[in-house]
Amino acid sequence: MVSVPSPFGADEDTFDAYDEFVPEHAPVPGEFLDGHRVLDGRRHLAVHRLARELFEERAVYDMTFGYNLARLNCDTRHPDAGYRYAVEDADVVAEADGTGDLPTGADDLAEMPADARVLRAEFTPTTAFCPQSDTLTRGSFRAWNGLADRHEFDLVRVRVAPMHQRSTPINAALREMEATYVETGEMPDTSDGDGSGPGLDTEIDDDVPGGPEPDGSRTPF
After folding, report:
1. Are strands 155-160 and 67-68 parallel, antiparallel or unpaired?
2. d(C-alpha 145, C-alpha 153), whole Å
3. Predicted TM-score (pTM) of this structure
4. Contacts of 28 (CB under 8 A, 6+ apart)
5. What are the b/e assignments for 92-124, b being 16+ CB within 10 Å?
6. What average pLDDT is seen over the chain?
C-alpha cells in the first residue's frame, strides 16, 4: 500500500530502524503486561517485525500519519506511543482465576489451556483522545489471530493502554472479540471498520531502515 502523505513533516532522522530497539522511544509497559514476561531488545524486535508484516497484509494503517501502524513504534516524534509485548505467564492468570481481587494486568480473560502460548500486546496511542484507537486495536487483533499460521502463539490478546479516555469500553469490546474467537475458533464478524482490509493490494514501502521487504521472521521462543 502506498502511504498517504502525512500532514506532518518528516526527515531522515524522524524514524528509528526496525532492527533497532530504543527504550526511550518505546512506550512504558502498562498494567496489561504487568507480571508477565515483557519483551525487549531482539525479542521485541522479532515480534514487532512480524506485526509489521501482518499489519501490512491486513492493511492496519494509521490514517492520521498514513503508514503501517507498526511504524508508529519507530516514529521519534511520538516516543511514548506504539506497541509493547509480553509473553503471558499462565501462573499469574491462574492466581487471578476465581478471585474478586484481580492482580494488576489481569482482567476478565477468555480461558486458555495452561500450556497455551499467549502473547499480550498493549497499544499506547499518541493522545488520550485518539479517535482511531478502537479501530486500530480491533484491526490488530484480527491481523494477529486471523493469520495465526504465521506465528507460534495460540492467542494474541490486544488491549489499549488505560491512558486513553475510552479504554474501558474499547477493552471490553476486545475481550468480547477474544472470547468469541477462543470459543468458536472463528474470527468474529464486524459491522464497522476495524482497521483491516483483506484483499487490498498492499506492499511494504515505508522508507524506515531495517528491512523494506517482508523478512519472514519468526519469534525466537
Report:
1. unpaired
2. 9
3. 0.81
4. 80, 84
5. bbeebeeeeeeeebbeebbebeeeebbbbbbbb
6. 83
